Amino acid sequence: MLQLKYYSFDLAFEYPFTISKGTKTHQPTLITSLGLGNFTGYGEAPAITYYNVTVPQMIESLEAKRGLIERYALTDPQRFWHFLHHLIPGQHFLIAALDISGWDLFAQMRRMPLYQLLGIKWEHTPLTDYTIGMDTIDNMVAKLHAHPWPIYKIKVGSADDIDVLRKLRQQTNAPFRIDANEGWTFDEARILLPELQRLNVKMVEQPLPKQCYDEMKELKALSPIPLFADESCCTENDVKKCVDSFHGINIKLTKCGGITPALRMIKEARTLELKVMMGSMNESSIGSAAIANLLPLLDDVDADGPLLLKEDVAEGLKYDHGNIKLSGGNGLGVRFTGKK
Predict the structure, then answer these.
(1) Are the C-beta atoms of residues 293 and 122 closer than 8 Å to each other?
(2) pLDDT beyond 60 at 47
(3) What DSSP designation does 8 have?
């Protein structure tokens, strides 16, 4: 019989984290664990207010379904995901945490790192970026100097974007990725894109509001830079919608419901000739390790959550100038160090 436990944390950021949707100083997150015998698997679901997800809501759902979850016979993590999908429909963040816990547990029971269990060869792993949140120009420059990195993600979405990026470009030759988080209009994006190319911007995430597929199709046709869907591609049902409007998709484990659907999204994106990125929702090393085990399947990755936080709840994941290194341990390869 499975043993379900959970732990809530309010993890402080190193700097106040600002995107076009607001500012926060802490990241609320829920850690789930599933135990069986001597093995315990962990998962994570950060709470994101603009998706109307809170830790108390997730805990309430867990307690309501605890008996059914603990009686589930975990013989196949993919079947476990389908069970959760019907048990708590629509609760993708919580399903993701439990799905990750299930994969971690199952891989540990098989005494294999997760990527090996999934049949993934550890080769050709992309570098993760380091995110510079929106701030004053001076503060953004200071963050960049404090964290030398081979590639940066820059959060934008204001009228001063281009001035900020020009100033940052004076400080480093590292490539930039731009994330507007739906913050631009079509005309703003159309004007900015050629200048962004001159500033060595390698991709732009979600320049327009998520439902603007027709405008994005027009923008894609004239863009000199690859455009990636983020808010426009939350779940499996969204992948096909992005084909004509974006060059690639950014998959978030929390938004799509975990590792199980993410694998299907990657496969579908490849079939549709879309580039594949996997992104962070400011997860600790637990959620970030779930991303890291999928690295060889990705073109690009944004898994810098532990780098942005002052504190962590697990150990075993290492960052070396953009390279993410797993510990070699079974399952996710991390050890939970939070309260038990």
Answers:
(1) no
(2) yes
(3) E
In sequence order, the 6+-apart residues with CB closer than 8 A to the CB of 142 are none
Contact (CB, 8 A) for 251 and 276: yes
Asked if 258 and 81 touch (Cβ cutoff 8 Å), the reply is yes
Alpha carbon dihedral 210, 212, 217, 219, in 10-degree steps, equals: -90
Model pLDDT for residues 183-241, shown as the tens digit of each residue: 899 999 999 999 999 999 999 999 999 999 999 999 999 999 999 999 999 999 999 99
Cβ atoms of residues 281 and 305 within 8 Å: yes
Between CA 243 and CA 256 the distance in angstroms is: 18
Three-state DSSP at 160 gives coil
Question: What's the whole-model pTM score?
Answer: 0.96
Measured in whole angstroms, the distance separating CA 317 from the mean position of its chain's CA atoms is: 15
Whose tokens are 């309260």? That residue is: 339
Return d(Cα 190, Cα 251) in angstroms, integer. Answer: 25
CA dist 201 and 176 (Å) reads 5
Alpha helices in 170-243 (DSSP H): 186-198, 213-222
Residue 38: count of CB within 10 angstroms of its CB: 7
